[in-house]
Specification:
Blueprint lengths: L1 H8 L2 H27 L16 H11 L1 H19 L3 H21 L3 H20 L1 H8 L17 H21 L6
Helix pairs in contact: 2-4, 2-6, 2-8, 3-4, 4-5, 4-8, 5-6
Length: 185
C-alpha cells in the first residue's frame, strides 16, 4: 500500500488535489468555528421548541451549554488551521477526524440527508488525507511499522502553499468576523 501511495504522490494533479482538499476542509471548519467561538447559534433560529429528538434541538442544547459550544469552535478552528498550514497538515487531519466523524454520526442519527451527504463527503476526504500521510501515521497505528520513507515532493513542499494557507485562514477569519458583527449574541 505504501508503494502505491508513493507512486500517487509523484503525480502533480494528486498533489494539487491534496493541497486544495486541505484548504477546503480547513476552510469549512474555520468558517463554522467563528460562530461558535463568538457564541452565536449555528442556525438563525432557536431550536428550543423543536422536538427533543431533532437536530435543531441538539444544536440548541449545545449552544445553550456555552462552554461546550465554544470548545467545539476552538477544536474546529485548530483543526482547520493545522490543515490549512500545510506544515502541520498531518496533525490537522488527525485532529479533524474525530470531530467530523462525530458530526457524521449525529447527522445520521437525526436523519438529515442533505447535511449527511456533505458531512460524509468531508469524512471521506479526511480519510483520503490520512491515507495520503500513511508514511507518517503508520508509526502510531502499527506495532512494527518498518522504516520511515520521506515521501515529500518538490512541488508540494514549496513554501508558497504554506503562505497561501495562512493567508486564506486569516482572510476567512476576518471576513467571517466582519459578516457576523451585526448578529445578536
Amino acid at each position: 500500500m505504501e508503494k502505491f501511495i508513493f507512486k500517487i504522490k509523484q503525480i502533480a494533479i494528486f498533489q494539487i488535489f491534496t493541497i486544495s482538499l486541505r484548504y477546503l476542509l480547513g476552510s469549512a471548519f474555520v468558517w463554522a468555528s467563528i460562530l461558535k467561538i463568538k457564541g452565536i447559534r449555528f442556525t438563525p433560529f432557536s431550536g428550543e421548541t423543536a422536538p427533543i429528538n431533532s437536530l435543531p434541538h441538539l444544536l440548541e442544547s449545545m449552544y445553550q451549554s456555552g462552554f461546550y459550544w465554544h470548545f467545539i469552535g476552538v477544536g474546529q478552528i485548530v483543526a482547520g488551521f493545522l490543515l490549512m498550514s500545510q506544515i502541520f497538515s498531518t496533525l490537522g487531519a488527525v485532529v479533524y477526524f474525530p470531530i467530523i466523524l462525530n458530526i457524521v454520526v449525529l447527522t445520521t442519527y437525526f436523519d438529515s440527508p442533505g447535511i449527511l451527504a456533505i458531512t460524509s463527503l468531508m469524512l471521506m476526504a479526511n480519510i483520503y488525507l490520512l491515507i495520503w500521510d500513511w508514511n507518517k501515521l503508520k508509526f502510531v497505528v502499527l506495532n512494527n511499522p518498518g522504516g520511515y520513507t520521506n515521501q515529500s515532493t518538490q512541488f508540494s513542499d514549496k513554501k508558497v502553499w504554506i503562505y497561501l494557507g495562512i493567508l486564506l485562514f486569516i482572510a476567512i477569519v476576518v471576513f467571517r468576523i466582519l459578516t457576523t458583527r451585526h448578529v445578536n449574541l
